[in-house]
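Researcher: Re-running this chain for the archive, since the previous output was lost when a drive failed. Same request as before.
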Amino acid sequence: MQSVMIVLFGIVGMSFGWFVYSKFIATKIYQLDPDFVTPAHEFNDGVDYHPTNKYVLWGHHFTSVAGAAPIVGPAIAVYWGWVPAVLWVVFGTIFFAGVHDFGALWASARNKGKSIGALSEVVIGKRTRSLFMVVIFLVLLMVNAVFGVVIANAFVGTPNSVFPAWSAIVVAVIIGQLVHRKMNLVALSIGGVVALYLSVYVGSVLPIELPTDMFSLTPNANWIIILFVYAAIASMLPVWVLLQPRDFINGMQLFVGLILLYGAVLISLPDISAPAFNSQMAENAPSLVPLLFVTIACGAVSGFHGIVSSGTTSKQLDKEPDARFIGYLGAVGEGSLALITLVAVSSVALAATPEAWHIIYDKYGTAGASTFIQGGAQLIQDGWGIPFSITQTLLATMVVLFAGTTMDSGVRLQRYIIQEWGEIYNIPILKKGILATLVAVTCCLLLAFGAGGASGSGGLIIWPLFGSTNQILAGLTLLCISVMLIKLGRPARYTLFPMVFVLVTSSWAALIKLVEFYEAKNWLLLTIDVVVVITTFLVILEAASVISKFRKQGQN
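Model: Regenerated structure tokens:
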């Protein structure tokens, strides 16, 4: 029964965020203009810039930003207890993520679809742009390399998810062609979701595994190579061919998944077996503050969202008022996924007793996506009576598809960054899409195999830095939006407060990691962490100088 109270608390809070707070931000702060000509129309090239139905674009945006992070982060963070995790997810979604994602989309659309890194030059200055781009590239490198490893591990650990995951690509291509020919979107949505769930059923009885010695590599390594070849091709296709329809269908799949999960809670009324505050933590467990706020990133606030909002979504925005629906409601959707993840890993569906829960959560970092799949599958079986083998395949496929769509968008975004470097530093060869894509994919593969050997697990080596670096980027994005608002003479406190909170907690976490990396003699991560901390400090100084100048001008 406790789980129902958590769900109701989250639904009421996020409903307030969408119906009240986001409307206030849209009308009073960002002041959306229905007559504004968006970059999608101004630069329409049918490849990256393409005016898109807001429901289709919401699907692309949401599944691109979601990935596996709003599942993995909350599944780990509940180690400190479910109360702090629930509070951060709900209030983080309302006052942090929604404003951040919505704001990055609006700011980019107002500046010809520039990425948040390139936009920082317009808003703050040239030196800031160069610093910003370094942090963005590192975040994208982490996301792409690690998600490649995560998907490969999921394919090997849950071979039932392989067939539906690749079937979704075929379905998406067909739907993309039909949408492009203006066929009925509702009928296509229903058909696409039915086809996807039929493939889930087929996958539950038809596991697919790669040979253990193919090309003298492990199955994990082969899957990583296959995934990056696919991502390279997908990132160069026009957005309407694969990216938009795949993300839209995945968004519909998530919508159905959320109905099943939330409905299961309301039907079975499960109790919570996890403690409200964990008093049985291991001696070396990290502290709740500030680590909670970087462990749960996606699902509360995440810098990666700003890259997506300004990198791909802003180039497809049909009308400026659509930014509220896509940006803020996308954050609400992700917060809803994070919230139900917390319920799945905290309830009796995962562990029947508090003692059993503590065995699973014996130390920080032992849980993750597999814990959510286990708890969520049991929750759906208990509530709806669907066989566990099917629900397990369904949730495993959901995790894989989310990670896959994020990887698709991530490689495309890396290409944009490299092409922007070509423009900034006048290197014509880097402006070419094919070469920029090859450079992006090569960097990811070098990290995966160069640092991790033949297993391809090297992407995980850099992952301990993702949480703090990603949240620092969120703070810097909010800083950029705040400076833009100040220049426009509009109230900036609604972005400045979240910015200060996120920068303080994430920088604190990065400094804690600095000590850990030094003590462990991990010079690679120590060097990267130092670069991120110094870069952040310099960007803040630059922004403070700009803010001070404009305030003085306003007083004169």
